[in-house]
Structures are given as C-alpha cells and as structure tokens.
Write a structure and sequence with these properties.
The complex is a heterodimer of chains A (236) and B (41). Chain A is mainly alpha-helical. In chain A, helix 2 runs antiparallel to helix 3, helix 4 runs antiparallel to helix 5 and helix 4 packs antiparallel against helix 6. Chain A is globular and about 75 Å long. The termini of chain A are far apart. The radius of gyration of chain B is 18 Å and the shape is rod-shaped. By secondary structure, chain B is mainly α. The longest helix of chain B has 39 residues. Classes of the chains: A mainly alpha (236), B mainly alpha (41). Chains A and B meet through helix 1, helix 2, helix 3 and helix 7 of A and helix 1 of B.
Chain lengths: 236, 41
C-alpha cells in the first residue's frame, strides 16, 4: 500500500514536470491549454472509478460479498474527487477561452454536473440509509443506475451540439495532437490512474480496519458489567 | 497564466488534501485498533 501510494505520488510529480517543462505551448490558446492534460485524464480516472462502483454493486447484489461493497464505496469517493477536479479545471479553462466559467445547458457540462450529483447522492445514501445490508443494497442500485450517465457524458459532444470541443484523442482519424503533447498526456493519464488506484486502496484498507474496530467496540459494549460494580448494586 | 495557476493549485490541493486526509484516517484507525487489541490481551 505504501509502495503504491509512493508510486502514485512520484508518477504525478513526474507528469507535472512534463506538463510544465516538456510539453510545448499551444500556439492558439497559450499556456492555459496545459490545463488539458489533467482535466481530460481526471475525467477518464473518474469513469474508471465509476465502472468499479458498477462492478462492485453488481457483485454485491449477486453474491452479497462485503468486499465488493467496500470496493464500490472506496471507488465512489475517489471518482467524485476526480469529477470535481475535472469540473473545476474545466471551468477555469473555459473562462479565458469561452469568456464564461460555465455555459448553462451545454450537454457535456450539464451531464458531467449530473454525474457529480449522482455520486454525491450515492455517498449521501450510504450515510443516511440504515447501516448494513440495507445501506449496501441501496447504494449498489444507485451505483448501477448512476453509471448510465457515464456514456451520456462521453458521447454528449457527438450526440448534441455543444460549446465543449469534440474529442481530440478518441477521434476517428486518430489523436489530433503533436507527439510531445500526446506523450505528456499519456504519462499524465498513467500517473493519475496510479494515484487513483492508490487512493482507492487506502480507502479500502481504511474500511476493513474501521469494520474490525466497530466489531471490537461492539464486543466491548456487550461484555457483562464488571463484578465490582454488580456487587455494589446488590449491597445497596 | 492566472487561470493555469488556479487550476493546478486547485488540483494539487484537492488530490493532495484527499490523499493526506485518507492516510491520516487510516493511521488513526490503525492506531486505535492496535491499542484495543493490546488492551484485550
């Protein structure tokens, strides 16, 4: 776990060095185009996390495996984090290029905001539902249904007219980027995937230990009262 | 340049903060678990 976390942090630092020192400056947009590397990669890491939530939910409903539920819960919070990064970085990129932080009713922006709300709702369900089986089952259903928004977000730029640009990487004619930019983006994507995996692993481990601790606390609270206290009551 | 700094500042704050908080929570739970296990023994 420590090794994975260290690798994730080191890879992210290396990717940042490439973004600022190796990647060329865009002729049209200038330095602000460098937001692209983390903005797009974060969105992909969020998709992967939500796919894990979907998988975890399906396995939990099928086999009632608590490990699958734990994994889904860990991946949901990490996916929400990366969606937040995508939205905020996108807004800060939009301001100098489009002249506005946010374009209301743009399908890509609104479907991404919906995605954020769905997984924020997922975590809220986990917090508000009765703990245990009910919470896990409800969350699994939200996680499975919520994943339907992922392809909507991804294809929104091709299905509808949007202010958001068309895909330049998953393009039919191949990636529309100079090689240095493409390499930098690939390194950033790999680094953020590694960091995302480390975050999910840390959260998963925390869940395991928190459950053990809760069991110990419960066992301690169910122990019979100490003999001295009992005798004090009877002697009164 | 301002927007670039703001964007990367936010990304580092969010990712770094999340990682730090997650590790701190893990360590706190691990320490409490060890403490309880030691007391039980």
């Amino acid at each position: 776990l420590t090794l994975l976390t260290a690798a994730g942090v080191a890879a992210t630092a290396a990717a940042l060095a490439m973004i600022f020192l190796y990647a060329p400056t865009d002729d049209l947009q200038g330095v602000v185009q460098r937001i692209f590397y983390v903005h797009v990669s974060s969105a992909i890491v969020a998709y992967v996390c939500f796919a894990v939530v979907l998988g975890g939910g399906v396995v939990y409903l099928w086999k009632e495996d608590p490990a699958a539920d734990r994994l889904a819960r860990a991946a949901a919070s990490v996916g929400l984090l990366f969606t937040t990064v995508t939205l905020v970085m996108g807004s800060l990129w939009a301001k100098p290029i489009w002249g506005a932080y946010w374009v209301w009713w743009d399908p890509r922006l609104m479907s991404t905001l919906a995605l954020w709300s769905i997984y924020a709702g997922y975590l809220l369900v986990r917090r508000l539902a009765a703990p245990g089986r009910t919470e896990a089952r409800l969350a699994a259903v939200v996680g499975i249904v919520g994943f339907f928004d992922v392809p909507v977000v991804h294809f929104s730029v091709t299905w509808w007219r949007t202010t958001h640009p068309q895909p330049i990487l998953a393009n039919q004619a191949g990636p529309q980027l100079p090689p240095e930019m493409l390499v930098t983006w690939l390194v950033t994507l790999a680094a953020l995937l590694l960091l995302g995996a480390a975050l999910v692993a840390v959260r998963y481990r925390t869940e395991v230990l928190a459950e053990k601790l809760a069991e110990l606390r419960l066992a301690a609270s169910e122990e019979p009262a100490p003999v001295r206290a009992a005798s004090a009551v009877t002697s009164r | 340049m301002t927007y670039l700094i703001l964007a990367y500042g936010f990304a580092l704050f969010a990712l770094g903060g999340f990682l730090a908080r997650s590790i701190l929570r893990l360590e706190r739970i691990r320490a409490e678990l060890e403490e309880r296990t030691r007391t039980e023994r």
